[in-house]
Amino acid sequence: MASTRGLVLVTGANGFIGARVVEAFLAANYSVRAASGAKTQPTLVPDITSPGAFDNAVHGVKAIAHLATPVDFSNTNVDYVIGSAVQGTVGILQSAMKEPSVESFVYMSSIVAVRGRGSQWEGRGVTEKDWNTEAEETLAKSGSNVTGHQIYGVSKVKAERAFWDFREKNAGKIKFSMTAVNPVWVAGPPLIMPEDPEKLSDTAIIAYRIMNSEDVPPVGPGNGTHVDVRDVARMILFAVQNKQVADGERFIAGGNGNFANVQAYRDLLRKHYPGRSDIIGEGEPGKGYLPDYSEPADARRVDASKAAKATGQGWIPFDKTILDAAKAYERYF
Questions:
Q1: What is the block-wise mean pLDDT of the chain (333 residues), using blocks of 10 residues?
Q2: Which SUPFAM superfamilies does UniProt cross-reference here (predicted)?
């Protein structure tokens, strides 16, 4: 059997993004150790917050792609979601520090760690230099009306801060590269299709809900700059393969040319699925987005030119992302 480029640990490997990350590493001739909370996965890490939880999982690996984090927008347990994200990130870094084989570590953060939802973010482009400084205040003000999205936002801010704080506190001791990838709204075709479409990722499910004539609010989830799940996987692979370029860097994944809203989903799907045009609500055709999916002047824009320049590659277009997902969802209808 031909040798591979090395062994990579992927946490959260059974998730929407995780499965595509595993696929990307396998296609690039790496061996993969998949870790998740699902008992059907090859490597089980029962509680990512336990001390030493990842010690066995990191043994002998060349690289780590840490994706595991609670992503359930219906979960409003503040302490659990935030605690799991932070403790899981610090815990796996501690395990990596003890494993001499580790050469690179990629943490999947989020655009919500970069920017918030307030008016100060509108009409300007955010870059990797920005941080979401409003998330915790917004969460505190929400009281009993807190939402899963607000908790998730704080968890990603705190976890990424902990990631970089760990690097600073252990400067001179860490022997591996450290990179954060911050995706915008992730859509596209899942690699693993659940039997029940309600088990689709909270971000990937938007296209399915619209195809299924479900009520999707015109504002909220599904509105803003998108990135294809396959591009997120590509960026994580890039960071591992180019550690001299990626070490100590954040990369926003997804940028201009993929700005869309729920109406854009509707218009695109009605055009390409005329047989379901009566099922897919018409809404207000063309409203709220530009024909080329570029970012409106007053939008919360993102500047992902850093990633595009580093990789020499742009982003999968929004229409391909959604239509490839729709093709995968045809089995449900």
A1: 85 96 98 75 59 91 92 77 92 97 98 88 89 88 82 93 98 98 97 96 94 88 92 99 98 91 97 95 94 90 95 97 98 96
A2: NAD(P)-binding Rossmann-fold domains
From its phi and psi, is residue 124 left (phi > 0), alpha (psi between -120 and 50) or beta? beta
Span 147-192, pLDDT tens digits: 888 898 899 999 999 999 999 999 999 999 999 999 999 999 999 9
- Report, in this order, helix, strand and coil percent for the chain, each rounded to 5: 40, 15, 45
What domains are defined for the chain?
7-187+227-256+300-315 (3.40.50.720)
Give the chain's length: 333
Say how many CA atoms lie within 13 Å of 269 toward its Cβ.
31
CB-neighbour burial class of residue 236 (10 A; exposed 0-12, middle 13-18, buried 19+) = buried
Using the Cα atoms of residue 235, residue 39, residue 82 and residue 141 in order, give the sign of their dihedral.
positive
- Alpha helix positions (H), 130-211: 135-142, 148-169, 205-211
Amino acid in position 23: E
pLDDT at residue 306 in the model:
97
Please report the pLDDT score of residue 41 as a whole number. Answer: 44
3 state SS of 94: helix
Structural contact between residues 113 and 184, judged by C-beta atoms closer than 8 angstroms: no
pLDDT for 229 equals 98
d(CA 91, CA 79): 17
pLDDT of 78 reads 85
Helices 318-329, 262-272: crossing angle, 10 deg rounding: 60
How far apart are the C-alpha atoms of 66 and 330, rounded to whole Å?
31
CA 81-11-229 angle, to 5 degrees, is 90
Query: Hey, what amino acid is at 12?
Result: G
Helix (H, G, I), strand (E, B) or coil at 231: helix
> Can you tell me which residue has the tokens 């307030």?
118
